[in-house]
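Quiz preparation item.
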């Protein structure tokens, strides 16, 4: 069960967001053989050099890079059951990601940053442990989902490269004051509105800092056109994938759960008066125009940590008969069969199967959203219907719930990290756009 691609030394949110920026690395083939009509390889003297799709400073993005990246992204989208824009639009969006990745790669090289093999190995081992697997099991699970391991490894190398680049060039610019931490903690403890969390969908229409009034007006009109499409009923995730310049565009513009204190003022001010499902008017910032949708809202005392104890039976993959098979297992459990025995016999989660399927106590953000949502819907002792996460099918039984107080030091540490991460995300947007503006890019048809 692969619940997240988390690298060592980073929070889950940070690692996931950064990795998704880099999930488009492709193998750097310099040439490839063409295929004849009957499927055989062309003769050696008919070898066709790989076509250049974009020149990026002193580097290139090749046609094979784009093809591999699109295939990888489509497989990821299928696993997540995510709707995609038309192929031509998807190709343009993925090409942009590859160009930005090449720019970052060159920046890292020019500043002396490199990633060695052992660092990549350690990162993959850590990701496997975070997913309750050893490296071999993790590799086999990727293969069962048709993810290319070598390509995945290249993605991790690029994530590590980006992580070091951000640590060198972006994080030194970030300052979180003691007053900001004091205000954050005070709001969590004493302000009911500030205790709420918001699930946000986001579209950015970028405006360069040097844009003249004509370009700014054109961008504002684009934002209004996007808003009208959404009001007319177009799917937000598809519009974001097609139109947004934000880092999360190809993931449907989903920013996840945020507190108002973690957001820039212009977003926090808008969200405070929005209802669930409501769309904002275009909002102006230094980066451009933003359209947001409040997808959901939750209340709760953030100084308390709610934890859940559950057990599950997990079957990897998405075979046609898996759901029905687990329905039969659920009926056996309802009829009195031992959960522990069936977990040991059936479950493919290597870390919980021999423990009767029992998972460690978990709080929000530590398991896939589908598992957390299912756990929140169950009463103690209930057995869920079969449900799917990205990498397979589950049955879950809720064993217990508890709430514990978060101590002051931990609360302040969490506040500092949340504030810092919010500022880092905004600064990465500006930094990435600056790198792009300073680069020579020629896109070829």
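Solution:
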């Amino acid at each position: 069960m692969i619940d997240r691609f988390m690298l060592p030394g980073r929070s889950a949110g940070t690692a996931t967001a950064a990795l998704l920026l880099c999930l488009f690395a492709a193998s750097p083939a310099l040439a490839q053989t063409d295929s004849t009509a009957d499927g055989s390889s062309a003769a050696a003297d008919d070898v066709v050099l790989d076509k250049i799709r974009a020149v990026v400073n002193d580097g290139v993005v090749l046609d094979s890079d784009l093809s591999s990246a699109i295939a990888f992204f489509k497989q990821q989208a299928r696993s997540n059951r995510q709707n995609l824009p038309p192929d031509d639009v998807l190709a343009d969006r993925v090409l942009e990601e590859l160009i930005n990745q090449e720019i970052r790669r060159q920046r890292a090289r020019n500043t002396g940053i490199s990633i060695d093999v052992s660092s990549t190995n350690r990162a993959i081992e850590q990701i496997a442990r975070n997913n309750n697997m050893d490296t071999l099991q993790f590799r086999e699970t990727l293969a069962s989902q048709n993810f290319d391991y070598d390509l995945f490894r290249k993605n991790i190398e690029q994530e590590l490269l980006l992580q070091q680049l951000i640590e060198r060039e972006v994080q030194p610019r970030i300052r979180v004051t003691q007053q900001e931490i004091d205000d954050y903690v005070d709001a969590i403890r004493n302000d009911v509105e500030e205790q709420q969390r918001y699930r946000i969908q986001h579209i950015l229409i970028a405006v360069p800092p040097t844009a003249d009034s004509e370009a700014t007006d054109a961008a504002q009109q684009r934002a209004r056109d996007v808003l009208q499409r959404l009001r007319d009923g177009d799917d937000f995730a598809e519009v974001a994938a097609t139109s947004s310049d934000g880092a999360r565009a190809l993931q449907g513009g989903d920013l996840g759960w945020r507190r108002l204190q973690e957001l820039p003022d212009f977003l926090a001010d808008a969200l405070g008066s929005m209802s669930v499902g409501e769309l904002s008017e275009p909002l102006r910032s230094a980066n451009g125009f933003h359209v947001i949708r409040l997808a959901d809202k939750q209340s709760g005392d953030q100084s308390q940590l709610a934890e859940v104890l559950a057990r599950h039976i997990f079957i990897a993959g998405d075979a046609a008969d898996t759901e029905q098979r687990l329905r039969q297992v659920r009926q056996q459990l309802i009829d009195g069969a031992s959960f522990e025995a069936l977990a040991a016999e059936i479950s493919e989660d290597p870390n919980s199967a021999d423990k009767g399927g029992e998972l460690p106590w978990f709080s929000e953000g530590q398991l896939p959203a589908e598992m957390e949502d299912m756990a929140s819907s169950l009463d103690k002792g209930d057995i869920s219907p079969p449900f799917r996460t990205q990498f397979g099918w589950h049955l879950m039984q809720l064993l217990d719930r508890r709430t514990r107080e978060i101590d002051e030091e931990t609360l302040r540490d969490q506040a500092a990290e949340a504030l810092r991460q919010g500022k880092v995300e905004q600064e990465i947007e500006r930094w990435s756009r600056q790198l792009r503006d300073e680069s020579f890019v020629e896109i070829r048809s």
